[in-house]
Ribosomal RNA small subunit methyltransferase E (Alkaliphilus oremlandii), 256 residues
Amino acid sequence: MHRFFVMPNQVNLTSGEIVIHDEDVKHISKVLRLKEKDIVEICDGESKEYICSIASIHKNEVVLSIEEERKSTQEASVEVVLYQGVPKGAKMDLIIQKTTELGIKEIIPVMMERTVVQFDSPKDEVKKVERWQKIAEEAAKQSKRGMIPKIHLPMSFKDAIEDSRKNALNIMPYENEENRGFKNIIKNLSKEDQASIKKIGVWIGPEGGFEESEVVKAIENGIHPVTLGPRILRTETAGFTMLSLVMYELGDLGGA
């Protein structure tokens, strides 16, 4: 069943209709070639889903009739925020796509000491983030997410540290940390403390990793360095790996 996201205000429970505009209209009519009475799945991005039949297709809108309303069960109980050192080329596209599939809640691009990529202007930043947000939306549709991860505008390392204070726990895979892994951190928490962890920040460096001064600053602000084993992972691999570990230990990856 094809899945589409809408804003909550597009859902009219009084009339029992949802009206779709913009690019999804073309996708429904021209690309997927769906017809009236075909069934689609709609998500409002706030964990509510609607099974709908297509009532009518017009040039600029598609009108859907709500057949069933239900709560989305695709989102994990733990929210994970990725603080990603901005990498070169298309690596960020891959990071956004795959972490969205795994259940990421937010992605914050961070300008770190070893970040090579530079944005020409604030307008360039906005344009890039809009593109990244679109990648997240497409990945969310494909993986049947209940919401679309938010891609933030790039932050400085200092601002990202400040933002991370909202998280219950922050972890930073670091090649010079040889003994303590994420599992070890969780094992040393009581069951009550584990249950209270609802939001985790995952910090990943760009190509070349973190500067030592950044690691010191992170530790001073309560961020825990952890090992991912004896092998050095690329920046585009480390985030997937860390997110998988978090979701396995505290989320819903692997089932009950």
Q: What stands out?
A: Residues 79-250 form a domain with the Alpha/beta knot fold (CATH 3.40.1280.10). The longest helix spans residues 122-142. The chain has two domains: 3-71, 79-250. Helices lie at 23-31, 91-102, 122-142, 157-163, 182-187, 191-196, 212-220, 235-250.
